[in-house]
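=== RUN LOG ===
request id: a7f3
mode: sequence -> structure
chains: 1
length: 164
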Amino acid sequence: MPNACSICTHPERAAIDSALVAGEPNRRIAPRYGVTETALRRHAANHLPASLVQAQQAAEVVRADSLLAQALDLQARAQGILNKTEADGNYRAACSAIREARGLLELQARLLGELDERPQVNVLVLPEWQAIRGALVAALAPYPEARQAVAGVLAEVEHGRAGA
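=== RESULT ===
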């Protein structure tokens, strides 16, 4: 018969579950409650109530919605200020309002996941790709039809027409 989970039977299980759901590191939780990190991992994987995890996720969605709502409100206010300063001919203040509106648009795009700031690398211009391409075409020299077909496909890939 398997042993009972030491976390499930712990007198402070609710606090342990809350700490786990909040993403607190096991190495901090374990000494506080006198349990092992292994027991915490096992409990989180097998016994952590799904409702707690869903509640945490729902709270994060509410926070994100609130941030977005605040950003939208600020955007509307900045737009109002921009309209008023332009109408008044106060172009210095209008430029400031434009800068603020731009920053708020950027924030909204980040909150909505519409702004991809990950670096992108074009591997087609890397010397390593050029060397591989040359070696591949050279290796196909004894097979002129295959060489021509591969060179054609490589040219399509390099011009963004792969699979077209």
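=== NOTES ===
Helices lie at 13-21, 26-33, 37-46, 50-88, 91-111, 127-139, 144-158.
The radius of gyration is 29 Å.
=== END ===
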